[in-house]
Design goal:
177 residues, alpha/beta, Rossmann fold, 7 helices, 5 strands
Length: 177
C-alpha cells in the first residue's frame, strides 16, 4: 500500500480511544504522534486535572487552543485531541483545514467502563459519571460529526483490528481526493 500523506486528527469523547488508537495509527503510518493533553502537561509541568482545579476549565481550554494551533502547523503527524477541543470554533476550523479528522465514537457503557478507574478525568469527578458522559455526548457529538472526515465506532473493538480498518478507510478517502 502507498504511504498515507497528511495529518490525522482524532476527536471524540474521553475514553473513545484517541490516545491508544492514535499511537498505533502513527506507528503504522510512520507519523509522529502527539496528544494535546500530554503536550499541555509537558509545557506547564502539571497534570490537566491540576490545571482544571487551579485555573478552571476556561483557562484550560485557552491553553488547549494554543497547543492545537501550534501542533496543526506540523506535518506528517497523528494528533489525539482532548475530548472538549471541538467546543472551540477555531480548533474545529484548524483541524478541518490542516488534516483528516477522524471521529472515534463509542457508546456510553464503553466510555464509562474505560474511564471509571481514571482519576485524571476532571469532568468525571462527579456523583453521576454516566449522566455527565451522556450530557457531554449530547453536546459534543454534533460538533465531532460537523468536522469528521471519517467516523469510526470503537465500541468493543480490538486496537489492531480497528487501526487496520482505519488505514483501509483512509486509503479509500485519499483515493477520492
Amino acid at each position: 500500500m502507498e504511504k498515507l500523506a497528511g495529518n490525522f486528527f482524532l476527536v471524540g469523547l474521553m475514553g473513545a480511544g484517541k490516545t491508544t488508537v492514535g499511537r498505533a495509527l502513527a506507528r503504522k503510518t510512520d507519523k509522529t504522534f502527539y496528544d494535546s493533553d500530554q503536550e499541555i502537561e509537558a509545557r506547564t509541568g502539571v497534570r490537566v486535572a491540576t490545571i482544571f482545579d487551579i485555573e478552571g476549565e476556561t483557562r484550560f481550554r485557552e491553553r488547549e487552543a494554543s497547543v492545537i494551533a501550534d501542533l496543526v502547523q506540523l506535518d506528517n503527524i497523528v494528533l489525539a485531541t482532548g475530548g472538549g477541543a471541538v467546543l472551540n470554533a477555531q480548533n474545529r476550523s484548524l483541524l478541518s483545514q490542516r488534516g483528516t479528522v477522524i471521529y472515534l465514537r463509542a457508546n456510553i457503557d464503553d466510555l464509562l467502563a474505560r474511564t471509571q478507574l481514571d482519576r485524571n478525568r476532571p469532568l468525571l469527578r462527579t456523583a453521576d459519571p454516566r449522566a455527565k458522559l451522556t450530557s457531554l455526548f449530547s453536546e459534543r457529538d454534533p460538533l465531532y460529526r460537523q468536522i469528521a472526515d471519517l467516523i469510526v465506532d470503537t465500541t468493543q473493538q480490538n486496537v489492531n483490528t480497528l487501526v487496520g480498518q482505519l488505514e483501509e478507510q483512509l486509503h479509500a478517502l485519499c483515493r477520492k481526493h
